[in-house]
Amino acid sequence: MSGWTANAFTRVCRVKVDFGDDIGNTKQIEATGFWVGEGETVHFITNRHNLDPTLKEGPETSLELRTVSIELREWKQHSMRPETRFFHVSNLERALRVHRTADVAALINPQFTEPTDGFPRLGFPASLIAPPAFFHKIMPMDVASFIGFPGKTGRPWYDELWKLPIARTVNIASWPQEPFSNRSIPTSDVTLVAGLSFAGSSGSPLLFHEKGIHLTSDSAVQITGHIPPMIIGIMSGHWWGDEDQSNSMFFHSGLSYFTRSPTMLGLLDLT
To answer: If you placed Cys at 188, which of 100, 101, 220, 269 could pair as Cys (CB 3.0 to 4.6 Å)?
Structure first.
């Protein structure tokens, strides 16, 4: 078992973002994000590159963040409904925090331009975000999953009726105790996973599967204890293989990378 329940799906949602400049150029994207917190204090986490155009377009871009809309789901009598609506964030300038070097951003207790009655913000408990010490319990080849909304505009891969995300399983591919460093990945504090991430998945929470494990030698383990499921990061991108995009068979390396959870804790002032 993974240690996660189906409720994890209801904590993950789509986000629509509009960029623009003073001469009429515009760009719209759809991506994934998730809620963290409980009660009246619930924060929204996504990738920095979903909200900061300079990360993808370069520092000289004229595009600026204009609007952010987050999809919320209707609930009636504690029952999930298929109806969803996008709500515009009203306090964007005050709520937005972005990490200086890592690909993660947060909207701190975002408010909306209209009431959200019946459309609650359901968050993962903040206690499930893994602190730095947790990465010493993670081993290469351990199992995790990410939950998100892959696909492009007009060609979604997720559930179109219920607007629910899908989960994909990955294995830890780089040494987990230290961040992975490679010049082809421009942002900091990442770990590689063996698994495919595609457009729309950016911003998906990376959910570590629970396990019982105790290191007994350099290469062997025996199952003795319990390590709980935790959120260990946010899916940030795929790592391309062959630079020749016409060679589609090898263009994707089969590897993706996530930004590690301690950066999220820093943005949320939980460190």
So the answer is: 101
What does the pLDDT look like over 16-46, one tens digit per residue?
Answer: 999 999 998 999 999 999 999 988 789 999 9
Domain span(s) for CATH 2.40.10 in the chain: 6-107, 128-267
What φ, ψ does residue 27 adopt, rounded to 5°? Answer: -150, 135
Residue indicated by tokens 């010490």: 133
Interval 154-172 mean pLDDT: 91
Q: What is the CATH number of domain 6-107?
A: 2.40.10
Q: Is the pLDDT of residue 82 over 70?
A: yes
| Residue 220 CB-half CA count within 13 A | 3
Top CATH class of 128-267 equals mainly beta
Which residues lie below 8 Å from residue 269, measured CB to CB, with a gap of 6+?
none
Which residue has tokens 């993660």? Answer: 104
For 143, the token pair is 């199992």
Residue spans of alpha helices (H) in the chain? 54-57, 92-95, 248-251, 261-267
Instruction: Tell me the pLDDT band of 252, cut-offs 50, 70 and 90.
Output: low
To which residue do tokens 């899916």 refer?
A: 235
Q: What angle do CA 270, 12, 141 make, to 5 degrees?
A: 75
